[in-house]
Design goal:
With 293 residues, the protein is mainly α. It has 3 domains: 126 residues, 3-Layer(aba) Sandwich (Rossmann fold), CATH 3.40.50.300; 63 residues, Histone, subunit A; 78 residues, Helix Hairpins, CATH 1.10.287. It is 54% helix and 7% strand. It has 14 helices and 5 strands. The chain has a 3-stranded parallel sheet, sandwiched between helices. Helix 3 packs across helix 4, helix 5 packs across helix 8 and helix 6 crosses helix 8. The protein is globular and about 55 Å long.
């Protein structure tokens, strides 16, 4: 199940799993982290009770889980599901994760701790934007795929270039993602752009009503401010808002409304990027409420 955020992937996956005796493997780059619950849209307890889920709450927030490691974990989940005679359903908006599972990833130089530490020092001293601008200079194609605040992925792309002299985008282009490791049907829920935007707005409102601001404040207090999931859309904006304000001061304030609007705009951009990722894929786009046959 693929597609932009708030399009209805989770509901479709749940209904399909019940229909074909399946289990769901989450392909969401934030849901894998413990404690980041509301803003990642994790399945509710009722949904978890309906269908077994995998790769949710499987990592500490300080772990930098990348697509390669997620694919390894997903392979284990697939084998476990199949061993019980069940049908695996991968569901999530992180298409790089899905692609890594289906096709594997391009070969690239291994991690270099010294380079990563240097990148982090640059980000601390000059801001993450400075590191991102360096990536735009050496690998504009990869930079265009990333959020400037995604320190882990920006650092990795720079690391690959600095170790090999070859941009990460060229490594990926050479790989081509052509050899299928796991045959799969890609299925999504078709939504008109206006309907998609309305669903995003409604989802964000529901998250705030569920206590998203309070959750973000608690995560910052627990020392998760510099973790990968805190840099994701929504959490990043809330972290900036909470740097110099307390929750009680923000409730009902114009600043909170402005931040909610900023999250809405950023989420729309993210959804547009998700649609772009899938543009050249053979996705079966189903009308809302339909099940694949």
């Amino acid at each position: 199940m693929v597609g932009p955020t708030a399009s209805g992937k989770t509901d479709l996956a749940l209904r399909l799993a019940e229909a074909i005796d399946g289990e769901i493997v989450s392909a969401d780059s934030v849901q894998v982290y413990r404690h980041f619950d509301i803003g990642s849209g994790k399945p509710s307890q009722a949904e978890l009770a309906r269908v077994p889920h995998h790769l949710i709450d499987c990592c500490d927030p300080h772990e930098a889980l990348d697509a390669a490691r997620w694919a390894e974990l997903a392979e284990g989940a697939l084998q476990s599901i199949k061993s019980r005679g069940k049908r695996p359903i991968v569901c999530g908006g992180s298409f790089l994760f899905v692609r890594a599972l289906i096709y594997g990833l391009a070969p690239a130089p291994p991690a270099d701790a010294a380079l990563r530490e240097r990148h982090r020092a640059v980000a601390d001293a000059h801001g993450r934007q400075a590191l991102y601008e360096e990536l735009e200079r050496v690998d504009p194609a990869r930079a265009a795929e990333l959020n400037p605040n995604d320190l882990v992925r920006v650092s990795r792309a720079l690391e690959i270039f600095e170790l090999s002299g070859v941009p990460m985008s060229q490594w990926q282009a050479g790989h081509g993602f052509r050899e299928v490791r796991y045959p799969a049907r890609l299925i999504g829920v078709a939504r008109a752009r206006e309907e998609q935007d309305a669903l995003i707005a409604a989802r964000i409102l529901k998250m705030f009503e569920a206590g998203w601001l309070q959750e973000a404040a608690s995560l910052l207090e627990r020392g998760y401010g510099d973790t990968r999931p805190m840099g994701s859309v929504g959490y990043r904006q809330l972290a900036e808002l909470l740097r110099d304000s307390r929750v009680a001061e923000l409730i009902g304030s114009p600043r909170l409304e402005e931040t909610r609007d900023a999250i809405y705009r950023a989420t729309r951009v993210f959804a547009r990027r998700q649609r772009t990722w899938l543009r050249e894929e053979q996705v079966e786009w189903l009308p809302p409420g339909a099940l694949p046959v």
